[in-house]
Amino acid sequence: MPRIVCIGPYKPQLLEPERFQLFVENDKIIDVNIELGYVHRGVEDLFTKRTYMQNLALAERICGICSGVHTLCYAQTAESIMDVEVPDRARYLRCIYMELERLHSHFLWFGVLAHTLHEHKVFLKVMTERERIQALLEYLTGNRIHYLINTVGGVRRDITPKKAERIRDVLKDMKDLSNYLLMLLNNDGVFVEKTEGVGVLSRSIALDVGAVGPTLRGSGVKSDIRRDDSYAAYGEIDFEITTEDEGDVLARTRVRARETLESIRIIEQSLQNLPEGEISVKPGEPLEKEEIGRAEAPRGELIYYIRSNGTNIPERVKIRTPSFANVFALTEMLRGDNIQNARLIIESIDPCFACTDRITIIDRNTGRRQIWG
Amino acid sequence: MAETKIAVYRFMSAGCNGCDVQILECLVPRYKLGELGIEVVFTPEEANVLAVTGSLNIKGAEELKKAYEKLKPPRIVVAIGNCATTRGIFSEGYPIVGPPDRLIPVSLYIPGCPPRPQAIVSAIAKVLGAHLDEEEDYWKAPEGFRGRHEFDVEKCMACGACAQVCSSDAIEVSDSDGKRLIRINYARCTFCGFCQDECPTQAIRLTREYHLSTDDKETAYVTNEVEMLRCHICGSYYVPSEQIKWAIGRIMDKVAAYRDLRKRLEDAMQICPTCRRKIGNIENAKRLLANLTIKTRKS
Q1: Does the model's ipTM exceed the 0.85 cut?
Q2: Testing the interface with B: which of A11, A44, A54, A353 to mutate, by most B Cβ within 10 A?
Q3: Residues A139/A166, Cβ–Cβ less than 8 Å
C-alpha cells in the first residue's frame, strides 16, 4: 500500500498555493495527483465583460511575474483582429521590455532555487541584484510588476537616450550576475550535486506530453517561439537558442542561466538598432473573425485565442499558458524519483499557478466538457 | 533591534502573485526588516501576523479561516494589494468570495497594484512606531510612476470619460443636489493610467505618491465635486456646467460656420434632453436648426 504525501496547498515555501498528492513506496514516488484551483479567478470569463483596451490591464494580472508577455501576446492577437500594423520602433521597444522581464523572471527563479537548496547567501545576492531590474522597469514604465507597456497598436512609453543609458548601466551588472550563476552551475558545489540527475525528462517524453520553454529546451529540443514563429523584432535580431541534452533539473537551470546572457545580447542589439519613428498607432475597428497569437514567455510558449463578433468587447478569449503545458511534464518527472527531491522538481519547471488554474464545466445532459481559465 | 518580534505568514489566494513577489523583495537587505524585528515564517503556527494577498476564491476561503485560527495572538491581519483590499479587477469573477475582510478581521490595508516594497515596509514600520530613514534615493518613486490620482480642480469638468475607460470600475460618477461627484477608489484601481490618457482636459494625473496604507478602506478615495447646470425649462440638474462650456468651445473651434450662433447654441444647450424632445420646444429647435442649416450652406 503506497504512502500518500501531500505538499501544499499552504504549507511549503512555494510562491503560490497548490496541492500535490504524492503516492510514495519505499521513498520512491510512484504516482502524483495535482489539485489545481487555489488561484483560480475566472479570468477568461472576465475577458468577455470588458473592452479590448480594458482587457490589457486584466491580461496583465493573470500573472505577476510574466505580466508583460501576457499583454504582448494579447495585444498581438487583438492587432490581427483589428488589422493593425505596429510601427518598427514599437517592435524593437517590445523586445527590450520583454527581455528585461525574462531577466527578472529567470533571476527570481534562481533565487527560489537557491532558497530551496538553503544557499542563503546566493539567494540574497540574486534577489538584491534582481531588484535593480525591477527598479529599472519601474523607471521605464511606471510600475514595478504591471508595466502595462504594450498596448493594441504599439507601446505606451518610449525609451529616451537617457533611459537607454540607464538600461546599459544595469545590464553591465546583470552580465556579471549571469556569469556568476553559470560559474556556480559549472563548478562542483551544492548547485550541481543536488540537481544533477534529478527529475529527468527524456526528449521523447518531453515531446509527447507537450512540454514548452526551458523545460523542453532542457531536454534537448531546439524550440523557441521567438525563432519558430518570430514576432516583434526577434526575426531581425541575432540570438542563440540555448539547449541542454540531459533533461534533469541541472540542465533546465543551465538553460535558464544561459538564456539570461542571450536576453542581455538581445536588449543590447535592440538598443543599438532602434529605428526612429512612432511608438504606436491608433487601432481600427475590430473585425468579425477569430485569431490565435503566440509568444515566448519566460516559462515557454503562451497562446491567446480571441473570437470577435465585431463589437468592442471580445466574444471569447482562451489562454494556454506555459505552466499549464508543463504541469503534465511535471507528473512524468516526479514519477520514479526520490520523495526528497519532490520540491526541487516541482520548482524546476518554474511553475506559475496563477496562470495554470482552470475550471472544467461539464454539461450534465450532454456530457460536454468546457475548460475555462 | 525593535522589541516586538513579528513573524509574518504569507497567505495567497486568487491573486496574480505580483504582491507576493513584492513581499519577497522586502527581504532584500536594504529594507532592513531584520532591524525592525520582522521575520517571514512558513507555517501559520509560528506566526502572529498574517499577510493576505489576492482576492480569495472559494477554495482558498476555508484555508484562510484555518490559517487565521492557527495564528498566535495578537493575530494581526494585513491585507496587501488591491485584490486583498477590495477584490480589485477580479470583482466580478465567479469563484471570488473575498475580499478577505469578509471572513476575518483585517487591521491594516496596503493598497497598490502591487504596492512597492517601500510602501509595505514603511506601513509596517508605522504600525510598530519605528522610525525609518526614508532619505535614500530608492524611497522616492521615479518620474512617470503611476501612483495615487490627483484632480486638477480647475480643469476637471466631471464629464465621466475616466469612468468609461477605467479597467477595474474604480471610478464612480454620481449626481446629487446639483453637484456631480467623481470618486476614484484607489484601493480598487489597477493604476493602468487609462483615465489619465483619456481625460479630455488633462485633469487627472497619477502622482508619485505611493504610501497609501490605511486602517479604514472607506477613506481610500480621491474625489472631486463639480457644479451642475439646471435645465431652464424643468429645473432639473442634468449636466455639469463646465462640460457645456467645453462642448460649445469645441464646436466653435471646429465649425467656423457656427461662430455667429454662439448665443443661440448656448441657449439651446441649457435645456435638458427630455425637455428638448417635448412638443413645446419644437418651434425653438426648428428655428435653431433652420439657422444652422442656412449657415452651413452658405459656407
Answers
A1: yes
A2: A54
A3: yes
